[in-house]
Design goal:
Strand 6 and strand 7 form a beta hairpin. The longest helix has 8 residues. This protein is mainly beta. It has one domain: Quinone Oxidoreductase, Chain A, domain 1 (Alpha-Beta Complex). It is 8% helix and 40% strand. The model has no long low-confidence stretch (mean pLDDT 84). Strands 3-4-5-6-7 form a five-stranded antiparallel sheet, with no helix packed on it. It has a two-stranded antiparallel ribbon with strand order 1-2.
């Protein structure tokens, strides 16, 4: 899959990266259709925060659920979701929508 990746200060490159896979029963894989860029991405770009090379950049995405782990009960393949930026615990809270309305 293609992703925007960090390559160093002021160096971002779109490149092929390994596609994600379900690792835990609570995982959800989302095909990203739109993603925002904000100030925290600029911290990376300007060198204020330095992640490892090839770090996949971008957050605040929207997309379509492609796959869910066996413990996921509130989402299913095909659901459209918005992933908020302010999640810091490592577990995502996805907001499912159907026909343009939250469910």
């Amino acid at each position: 899959m293609k992703a925007v990746t960090f390559q160093g200060k002021k160096s971002m490159v779109t490149k092929e990266v390994k596609a994600p896979s379900i690792q835990e029963n609570s995982d959800v894989i989302v095909r990203i259709t739109t993603s925002g860029i904000c100030g925290s991405d600029l911290h990376l770009y300007h060198g204020g925060i330095v992640p490892e090379q090839d770090y996949v950049v971008g957050h605040e995405p929207m997309g379509i659920v492609e796959e869910v782990g066996s413990e996921v009960k509130t989402l299913k393949k095909g659901d459209r979701v918005v992933i908020p930026f302010n999640i810091g615990c490592g577990r995502m809270f996805l907001l499912p929508t159907r026909n343009g309305k939250s469910v």
